[in-house]
Amino acid sequence: MQQQISVITLAVSDLERSRRFYTDGFGWTPVFENEEIVFYQMNGFVLGTWLKARLEDDMGRGLHSPGAFTLAHNVSSEDQAKVVMDRLAGAGGRILLEPAAPPHGGIRGYIADPDDHTWEIAFNPAWPIDENGHVTFGAS
Amino acid sequence: MQQQISVITLAVSDLERSRRFYTDGFGWTPVFENEEIVFYQMNGFVLGTWLKARLEDDMGRGLHSPGAFTLAHNVSSEDQAKVVMDRLAGAGGRILLEPAAPPHGGIRGYIADPDDHTWEIAFNPAWPIDENGHVTFGAS
C-alpha cells in the first residue's frame, strides 16, 4: 500500500462561513465547489469541507465538534478497498461501514483506528494518484 | 501563503497500539519515533501520532475522542506565524494560543476555524517546504 493520505474532510455547519476562513484567511483557492462541499487541491492530497449532515449520512455515524472529520486513503480498485479494510481490522481497527457504493460514485468504507480516528478507504477512479502518492482532484 | 498543510497530528492514548495499526495495517514505515510520538513521511506532508496528554499540553486545550487531532500549516518565519494568525482571526478564526516557543523548538500558535477545527500555525526551520508546498520531515 502507498504511504499516502488522499483526502482530509472537515465537517462544517455553514459552508460560506467556512469558505471565507479558508479563502480570505489562508488565501486558498477552491478547485471545485457546489452547495454542499468545497474542495481545495493541496500539496499532494485534497482538502474537503463538507456539510456535517452529509458527512454524517455518508459515514452512518453522528459527529461531534470539535473533531468532526475523517481522513481518507484511496486505493486502486474496488477489491483492494475490501482487502485494506480487512487488513486494518486485523491490526486493531474497528469497521464502521463495510465498503459499499455511495450515491456520489466509487466505493468507500469507513474504519476507526484504535483511538477512534476515522479513515475512509475508497476507490475513486476519477482522482489520479501518481507514483509518489500525490493525489489530484478530478471531476467525476 | 502556500496552499499547503504541513502536518496532521492524531492524538493517541497508546503509542504502540496505534503504531501497530499504521505499520501492520497500512504497512507504513515511521520516519522518526520516540517514547511519545511517531512521525510518518507522507505524500507531501507529515503524519504524527502523539500521546494525547502531550498534545493537550501543547495546545492548552483538553481533547475528546473521536476527533482529537490538529492540522498544521507551517510558515517561513516567526513573524509570519503572527501575520497568518491575525489574518485567520480576521476571517472568522478564534485564537486558542498566541504564537510562542514550545520546549521542543520553533514557534507555534493555535487557532480554531469557524467549525472549531484546530490549526497549528508553526515556524519549524528543520522541516523543508519546496516550491510545490511539499513538506519533508527533518530532525531538528
Automatic annotation (TrEMBL), chains A, B:
Q: Which residues cross the membrane?
A: none
Q: Which Pfam families match?
A: Glyoxalase
VOC domain residues: 4-124
Source species, domain of life? Bacteria
Tell me which InterPro entries the record gives.
Answer: Glyas_Bleomycin-R_OHBP_Dase, Glyas_Fos-R_dOase_dom, VOC_core
What this protein is called in its record is VOC family protein
Q: What organism is listed for this UniProt entry?
A: Microbaculum marinum
